[in-house]
Amino acid sequence: MIFPEFLSSVGEAAKTAAGFFWKSGWAFVLGYFISAMIQTFVPKGRLTPYMGSADIKSVGLSTFFGAISSSCSFAALATARSLVMKGAHFVAAVAFMFASTNLVIELGILILIFLGWQFLVAEIIGGIVLILISRQVIVWTYPKAWLEKARKKVEDDSGSDSEDFDWRERIRSAEGWRIVGHSFVDEWAMVWEEIAIGFTIAGFVAVLVPETFWRSIFLAETAAENPLSFFLVLENALLAPFVAAATFIGSMGNIPLATVLNSSGVLFAGIMGFIYSDLMVPPLVAVNARYYGWRVALYIAIVMYLSIVCTALILHYLFAFLGVTPES
Asked: Cα Rg for the chain, rounded, in angstroms?
């Protein structure tokens, strides 16, 4: 009896993993296509004046570009890498990554359907707060030597394509689109293993981990009695990114699991921290390591973690103060 049940669970997990990929496959294609076009058609000299600094204007522009871009975490990393290669500041690249995974329309619709309007409002407000906090953390801690070395690695990995070209002429030529196709294939070749591993593990976690496990680690019983306890709120906010990392689920795939956490009594700060942590899953950190090296990849992950925890705490107490905290 046990063996058939095991096979059934494995089959359901595999189907769930395939479903995650099916629902986000369009975003992969779109995101990597945008990345390839940026690499091919945007001369470095035209981009750097707008996104080459850490000021509010540069961050705002990066946020706007991210919001109208893909919601796929892997594609967001690929596009951010292209921006860095073209001279964008790392602050702008991080802002783009956060915006393209947290402020896009399709993700907002999914949150509204699964979780309700309070979570949608929190996602928008928190996304902006998250970007501003991460900008400040990077400005305070900016490891110039590390990031310059990472930029050189990105430029070296991209090949020796000349920046001296007329983008209007290139975009009308067959050669230009051949370069786009070549860049698209190169991006997939770099990350397909991490994508496959991530979605497989996500499917198994979603199916095999019981709801009681989430209630236990997030101290849901105690939190229900003391929803404003700073210790409990902090525990939920600190733990949520690690749970997101363990589930390996990306920006679109983590909303259904966030619904499970919400129904399990996880605090608002924990749920928002979980939703924002899609860029911290191990396959994505590994992709950043392949792009920039492990030192910079871990630096970016730490900046994101600190920013996510602070944003989750701010949202929890702001919504409590306004009396609009959503109920489980």
From this structure: 20
What's the chain's length in residues? 328
Interval 176-199: pLDDT, tens: 898 888 878 876 776 666 667 667
First to last CA, the chain: 36
278 Cβ contact list (under 8 Å, min separation 6): 73, 101, 244, 249, 250, 251, 254, 284
What is the C-alpha separation between 78 and 224, in angstroms, rounded? Answer: 40
Q: Cα 2 to the chain's mean position, in Å?
A: 38
pTM for the whole thing? 0.77
How many other CB atoms sit within 10 Å of the CB of residue 6?
Answer: 10
